[in-house]
Amino acid sequence: MNKGVYLALSSICLAQGLKIPIHYYKKKEWRPELFFQTGGMPSSHSAGVSTLTTYIALQRGLPTFDFALSLVYGLIVMYDAQGIRRQTGELTLKVNSMNELIDKIHKDETVKFEQEAPKKLKEMLGHQPEEVIGGALLGATIGMIGHLCTERSRKLSNFSVRFDRGWL
Questions:
Q1: What is the pLDDT averaged over residues 69-85?
Q2: 3-state SS of the chain?
Q3: Which residue, 43, 81, 88, 128, could crosslink 135 as a Cys pair with Cβ 3.0–4.6 Å?
């Protein structure tokens, strides 16, 4: 694998990990399982694609095919994260609230009614726009740091080659 892939995967893990303390700060509720769930602040989807796109832009340049491909796919992922997936989450909220309403209606009936309790659907699927932006900013920052580390490593490598060959 190349460094861009490592950076993008690291960015995704960092974004997922940040969801736990951010949730705790907002709700005063410690929920480590958020690391493995979708939705929430920051968007790990946005962080991953932004890291890769930023890293490619800084390493290869803006007029390259690599950057264009990464940018377009990244924008599609971020649009999907806050658009379609968010709407699915909102629909799920409505379905779950309908199940609660049906349960209340059935409790008031005198007829014996046996039914398995419906499994509650997962409500946090997509992202709010600010969560997508937060993930994109986190990703761009990690992409820049990755590029700077790569450049520093490259310069140190060039220096040692010159030193070994007696060019100094």
A1: 85
A2: CCHHHHHHHHHHHHHHHHHHHHHHHHHCCCCHHHHHCCCCCCCHHHHHHHHHHHHHHHHHCCCCHHHHHHHHHHHHHHHHHHCHHHHHHHHHHHHHHHHHHHHHHHHHCCCCCCCCCCCCCCCCCCCCHHHHHHHHHHHHHHHHHHHHHHHHHHHHHHHHHHHHCCCC
A3: 43
